[in-house]
Write a structure and sequence with these properties.
single chain, about 45 residues
Length: about 45
Amino acid sequence: MTLDPQKRRSPAQMRAGNLRLALILIGVVAVFFLGAVVKQWLVR
């Protein structure tokens, strides 16, 4: 990280980064749970 004001991220850029990270994490969790549900369905 840098303290140079020219290179700091704006609040809008930080929000965009946070949103992107949240969507990625939600996607990973969704795939995990879908995999668990499909596995249970196939085992039955």
